[in-house]
Design a protein that fits this description.
Structural class: mainly alpha
CATH topology: Four Helix Bundle (Hemerythrin (Met), subunit A)
CATH architecture: Up-down Bundle
Strand content: under 5%
Strand order of the largest sheet: 1-2
Shape: elongated
CATH superfamily: dinb family like domain
Number of strands: 2
Length: 171
């Protein structure tokens, strides 16, 4: 779990270093009507993380379960690829993203909550949780934390794409 948490911190730091200095107008500007703004990307990341926290907290409250060996081999790193396009489930679509300061505060708060949940229950307990991911299927809690880091990495790439389009080629 240490690697997954390190990946979370690294991805979060890159995202925050990129989005914090942005002008609020750039932050909320869509490159086109069919593409998300940086604000919507961050709001989506927060919605996903809040959903993960809720589901993991529910799994912690249940009796320990184990994922089969084959399921433990599913590479969560695939999530970071922007080559594979996946539509976000309705529950985590970033409709009506709040203002910049609120989006960033919510995102930081959800990250702190996930890290607290991890620290409270530890790797052994997280290995005994089952998280039902809409595309990866059943994965354990450690793989779920890993997924969150790779998911953020994926959207960091998207944020850079958005900024290049808005800024005429410069991220």
């Amino acid at each position: 779990m240490k690697k997954a948490l390190k990946r979370l911190d690294s991805a979060h730091q890159k995202v925050m270093e990129t989005v914090t200095p942005l002008d609020p107008n750039v932050f909320s500007q869509r490159p086109s009507k069919d593409e998300w703004s940086v604000a919507e990307v961050i709001h989506h990341l927060c919605l996903v993380e809040e959903r993960v926290i809720k589901d993991l907290a529910g799994a912690v409250a249940r009796a320990p379960q184990r994922i089969g060996l084959f399921r433990r081999l599913i590479p969560t790193a695939i999530v970071s690829s922007r080559l594979i396009r996946v539509k976000a489930p309705q529950a985590v679509k970033p409709l009506d993203a709040p203002p910049k300061d609120v989006v960033i505060a919510n995102f930081n708060r959800s990250r702190a909550a996930l890290k607290t949940l991890c620290a409270t229950h530890g790797e052994d307990r997280f290995r005994q949780l089952i998280f039902k991911h809409p595309f990866l299927g059943d994965i354990d809690g450690v793989a779920t934390v890993s997924f969150v880091g790779y998911h953020e990495k994926r959207h960091y790439k998207q944020i850079r794409e958005v900024l290049r389009k808005i800024n005429g080629g410069r991220p």
